[in-house]
Write a structure and sequence with these properties.
Elements lengths: L1 H23 L11 H15 L20 H13 L4 H26 L2 H12 L3 H6 L5 H21 L2 H15 L8 H12 L6 H29 L10 H10 L5 H13 L3 H15 L3 H19 L4 H25 L1 H18 L14 H27 L3 H18 L13 H13 L7
Helix pairs in contact: 1-4, 1-5, 2-3, 3-4, 4-5, 4-7, 4-19, 5-19, 7-8, 7-18, 8-10, 9-10, 9-18, 11-15, 12-14, 13-14, 14-15, 17-18, 17-19, 18-19
Length: 455
Amino acid sequence: MIRRAALIVGLVALAHAALYIVYQQGEWRSRTAWTDQTGYQRLGASLATTGEFTRYADAEAFVPEVIRTPGYPAFVAVVYKLFGVDNDLAVAAAQALVFVSICLMVFLIARRALGDRSALVAAGMTALYSPLPYFGSLIVTELWTACMATAAILVCLRAVQGGARRDYILAGALFTATTMVRPAFVLMPFFFAIAVPLLVRSQRSRAGLKNWAALAVTAALALVPWLAYNYVNLKQITLSPAGGIGRGLWEGSWQGRWSGRVQAELTNLAEATADRAELNRRVVAKAGEYGLPAAPMLDYVNQWRDIRAIWDTPTDPIERAGARVDADREYLAQAVANIRQDPMGHAIRRLTRGLFVLWAAEVPVRYGDINRLPPVAIRAMWAVQVLLLAIAAVGALRLALNGRWLEAVMLSLPIVYVTAVHVPLLCEARQSLPVKPVVLALAGIAVTFRRTEVS
C-alpha cells in the first residue's frame, strides 16, 4: 500500500510539472522574464559543445565565467548533450523528474524523522507545492539546488541516525555539490558540523566529532578544484568573484523603501532611459504619481546606472569579465554607504519585509501575469506560505518535545541557515526554495503526528 501511495504521489508530481511546462514554455527565450535563463543556456551549450565553462565559446582567448558556478550549467549541458543543444523542453522534462525525486526524498526524510504516515503526507504536500514545478519549468537553478540540498540533508540525517562514517563523507560531498549550484550554501556543512554537536549531546562523543570532522574536511576538499580554477583564471581564491555579496547587499540596502512593484518600475526606467536628464525627469514624475519623496528614488536609479555602466561599457569579453568583478566591489562600497545613512531603518526593513519576502512571498504565476493579478489573490498565496511555515514550526516543536530532538535539530537547521545567510542581503522568495522540501517534511510531520508513533 505504501508503494502504491508513493507511486500516486509521483504521478501527481509529474502531472503538476507537466502543467507548468505547458504554461511556462513561452518564457524560455523571453528577454523580459527571468533573464538569468540566458546565462545558463549559454553556459550549458558551451559545456555541451566545447567542454569549456564560458559564455564566449567562439572567442579566440578563453573568457572565464565570473558570475555563475558550474553545478547547474553542467546539468543543462548533460541534457543538451543527450537531446540537442538549446532543447529547453528536454531540460524542463528532466527537471520534472527531478521534482519527482524531491518528493521521494521528502518521503524518506519524513519517514526517518517519524514514520510512513507522515512520510506519505509530506510527499503529497510536496507534489502539490506549486513553486517547485514552477521553477522546474524554467532554465534556472532553483529546482536543481533544492534537489542537491535535499539530498545532502537526507544523507546527513541518515549519517547521524546510523553513525556510518561513509554517510558523513557523502553528505559533505553533497553539500559542496549544492554550493556548486548556489554559492550561498558554502557554509552549510561547516554550520552543521558545529551546530549539531553543540545541540545534540550524543554527537559530542569522540566518534561523533570525528565523523563531523570528516564531513567538514570532505566539503572543504571538494571545493578545491573550483577554487583552483578561479585562482588560475582570475588570480583570486573565490567562489564567484562578481557573484559576491556586493550586489546582494546593495539591492538589500534599497529593498523595503518602496513596494516591490514601484522598485521594479524604477529599475525599468533606469534600464530603458539612456539620457540622464530624461531619466531624472521621469523619476520625479513617478515620485509624484505615487506621492513619495523623489530624492531617494533619484539616488537609487543613478546608483543603478553608474554601477551598471562599469561592466556595460567594455566591449571586449575579457575586459567585461574583469569589469564585473570591479562592479561588485563598487556595489559593496555603495551598499555600506547606503546602510550607514539609516542603520536602524535598514535593520528593521531586513527583519520585517526581508524575512517576509524570503519565506512567504512566492507567486507561482507567469512573470508577465503577476502584476495583473488582483491583490487578494497574491495575499492568499502569501497566507498559504505563512501558514505552511507555522505548521512546519509546530512539526519541529512536536519532534523536540517527544523524544526526537536529533531529528528536530537536523530539520530545523537548514531553515535557520538560509535565514541567517539571506536576511542581510536582498531577499527573494526563491532564495528559500532549496530548503522548502524540509519545511514540507516538517509540515507533514505536524499534521500527522501521533504520540504512539514516537519510540
